[in-house]
Design brief:
By secondary structure, the protein is α+β, with helices and mostly antiparallel strands. It has one domain (15-179). Helices cover 28% and strands 24% of the residues. It has seven helices and seven strands. It has a seven-stranded antiparallel β-sheet with strand order 1-7-6-5-4-2-3. A hairpin with a 5-residue loop joins strand 4 and strand 5. It is globular. The structure holds zinc ion. The site of zinc ion has 8 residues, from helix 6.
């Protein structure tokens, strides 16, 4: 009911709110990966380009989700959800329209385009950045921390990079994204 009412009076949908968020990356002091590591530099480079919608920079890489919903992390099984990166329930909650784009590449992974920054902030995003120039690729997990009672500011997103063969568990913590006011 609330969602319906919000839609009627023109409140932004969840995906519109995610698109509007600006975040800054801070490297974790406890990270075992150095702040100048290629995976960290690649992430920062992409984040800035994605938030500024810098088409020229974004054209230098591809971004693919890992076949799991960016919001809840569950496997994507329907073609439309593979295309947009969100399962039926989450797409509905976010206000994401389902459109078949025929960009699906292989094994349920899908290419993300204009929505890549919003996708990354959706809560449980796993995605791979591939440099078209060097072929270097890194897979990241960006997960929103749970809000704790008494928190005075928005909880951050944790950023981790895939560092082993198991793409569900072998992630190494890099740092945090904080909402910029
Ligand atoms: Zn979902």
């Amino acid at each position: 009911m609330v969602a319906q009412w919000e839609k009627e009076v023109g409140m932004p949908t969840e995906i519109e709110a995610l698109r509007a968020i600006r975040v800054r990356y801070t490297h974790g002091r406890k990270s075992r990966i150095g702040r100048e590591a290629p995976s960290v530099r690649a992430f920062s480079w992409w984040l800035e380009a994605a938030q500024l919608q810098d088409e020229k920079k974004l054209a230098q890489l591809t971004i693919h989700h890992q076949g799991a919903c960016g919001r809840c992390g569950r496997p994507l099984t329907v073609p439309e959800s593979v295309d947009c990166g969100f399962g039926p329930h989450c797409a509905d909650e976010l206000g994401v329209a389902w459109e078949r784009r025929d960009t699906t590449s292989f094994h349920g992974e899908g290419e993300l385009s204009a929505e890549s920054a919003a996708f990354a902030l959706a809560g449980n995003a796993r995605f791979t950045l591939t440099s078209l120039k060097s072929g270097a690729r890194f897979t990241y997990k960006v997960s929103k921390a749970k809000a704790k009672p008494g928190d005075t500011k928005e909880p951050p997103w944790f950023v981790a990079v895939l560092s082993g063969p198991d793409n569900t568990s072998d992630y190494e913590y890099l740092g945090c994204l904080w909402e910029a006011k």
